[in-house]
Amino acid sequence: MTLEFDTHFEPRYGEPVEIAPGIRRVTVRNPSPFTFHGTNSYILGSEGSLAVIDPGPEDQEHLEALLAAIGDRPLTHIFVSHTHRDHSPLAAKLAEITGAKTVAEGPHRPARPLAIGETNPLDVSADTAFQPDIKFADNGLIKGDGWAVRAIHTPGHTANHLAFALEGTGITFSADHVMAWSTTIVAPPDGAMTDYMASLDKLIAREDRLLLPGHGGPVLKPQQFLRGLKAHRKMRERAVVERLATGDRTIPEIVKAIYRDTDPRLHGAAALSVFAHLEDLVAQGRVRTEGTPTLDSAYLLS
């Protein structure tokens, strides 16, 4: 199945853009190879109280844009999909100003203990300071005026990653788990490939009609795209196995071969993605290494 990305996106920084009735998007001016044109915050509600999904990084311009879009309406909840520094840090300041409660699966944690440490080295990695006021468990439901948000635990990008389904609409906010413009970074120890693949299956089973991601524009054909993402990951897994079969033993060797056409600025993320695949392959018994898998380990086919 061919995976086709949609890189057409107009961020319209600081401006609330209506995506659907009761849903407005405000994009942060924080473009990068990891964030595309910037992080998307969403404001829910058309009457009565409001909610914000993913307030974004500590950015005064964006804070002012959110407050202007909220106006004099009460903000009751700030939903945080996951604890990366381009999504969660502004939650504390926005909550302090508005009195809203912060809501998330939990604080940052590694997907599992690994020798490479508690967080990955990417520049938008762990926000370890964030602590939610309300812990939102899988399938939990929080209601406001004219909106109801259901938690979908979708680990993989991070262990605490949530997607948020807007009940009764067929719309799910997929954050960094599924994005139309690019594949998701799965970087241990924050995330794990085994978890990511299982979470894709979880969203495939939902049959949503629209996904609104943390970066870039909407996923307009979720079923087709999700199945394409799954096929892409399986293709990458096969590529890793093929490189091992040809004699590559280390992650840098594999990255050099299979990511040769990728922006060099993303090679650090690519190395972590290959590591995620190798960690999964070791757990499956298809690949072996001495001791605990690390970024510097030598790997062999079993």
3D shape? elongated
- Largest beta sheet: what is the strand line-up? 1-2-3-4-5-6-7
C-alpha-based Rg, rounded: 19 Å
Largest sheet: 7 strands, mixed
Helix residue percentage: 25-40%
CATH superfamily of the largest domain: Ribonuclease Z/Hydroxyacylglutathione hydrolase-like
Span between N and C termini? Answer: 29 Å
CATH class of the largest domain: Alpha Beta
The CATH topology of the largest domain comes to Metallo-beta-lactamase, Chain A
Q: Give the second-level CATH assignment, the architecture of the largest domain.
A: 4-Layer Sandwich
Decide which structural class fits the backbone.
alpha/beta
Strand element count: 14
Strand content: 15-25%
Q: How many helical stretches? A: 6
Number of domains: 2
